[in-house]
Design a protein that fits this description.
This protein is mainly β. It has four helices and nine strands; from the N terminus they run βββαααββαββββ. The protein has one domain: Jelly Rolls. The strands form two sheets. Strands 1, 3, 4, 7 and 9 form a five-stranded antiparallel beta sheet that branches. A four-stranded antiparallel beta sheet has the order 2-8-5-6. The two termini are 25 Å apart.
Length: 230
């Protein structure tokens, strides 16, 4: 800021005693403006479908490369629990209709709205699919999918298996750091017979919910201005 020098020459004797001392004072200038701001709306808990109702044919045991099927499951971020439903049956229209009548995602959404959280987290759906046959179910990391389909031994790599499953909903607590890429393998255990398998998966996700809103902000600036003393 440059210095300013102000001088005064009196017009007559009456104005000779005029105080011509120049002083400085601060003046403030406030500017208001609008910005977009992110506001937390709290924690939101909801059910997310991972794999919709899917029905696959599993061929006869005579060809070991075709007696099993693998389902890829990508667990969503911020998942607390995830679930998958497996049921196997012989093919006919009644069995297929019955298998498609149960929707895992709808079941979980209904219970989440009905139950307090401390009860819901202890809830595991009970599948009532009829006309089922036995199959082996194994869960493992996606890196071993081809090994499973080629009938290789993956016992050292699986993270959960159960033999002779007819119809069941499995519940998994997701642990931070655990791979989100999971594979569910189903193997036909009916000698010489072709079966069909019904699979579906869903997750309960807990995450903070945000909203974009307009927010008023302001900025105040100051500057020195000269004035004459009285």
């Amino acid at each position: 800021m440059a210095d300013i020098s102000i001088t005064r020459t009196p017009a007559d004797e009456d104005t000779t005693a005029f105080n011509h001392t120049v002083k400085w004072r601060l003046e403030y200038d406030t500017i208001f403006y609008t910005v977009k701001d992110t506001v937390s709306l709290g924690i939101d808990t909801f059910v997310k479908e991972i794999v919709p109702i899917t029905i696959n044919r599993i061929e006869k045991l005579r060809d070991f490369k075709k007696d099993r099927v693998a389902y890829s499951v990508l667990v969503p971020e911020n998942t607390m629990y995830w679930y998958y439903k497996v049921s196997s049956f012989f093919s006919n229209s009644l069995n297929v209709k019955d298998a498609e009548s149960y929707n895992l995602t709808d079941d979980l959404e209904a219970k989440l709205s009905e139950l307090p959280w401390n009860k819901f987290r202890n809830y595991t759906p009970t599948c009532t699919t009829k006309y089922t046959v036995k199959a082996d179910v194994v869960r493992f990391n996606f890196a071993y999918q081809n090994s499973f389909l080629e009938n290789k031994d993956i016992k050292a790599y699986n993270t959960g298996s159960e033999n002779k499953v007819k119809s069941k909903v499995f519940k998994i607590k997701h642990v931070n750091g655990e791979s989100r890429n999971q594979i569910i393998g189903v193997a036909n255990k009916q000698p010489g017979l072709e079966i069909y398998n019904n699979f579906q998966a869903a997750a309960v996700v807990i995450q903070e919910k945000f909203e974009i809103v307009d927010a008023q902000k302001y900025r105040t600036r100051s500057k020195k201005v000269p004035y004459l003393s009285e």
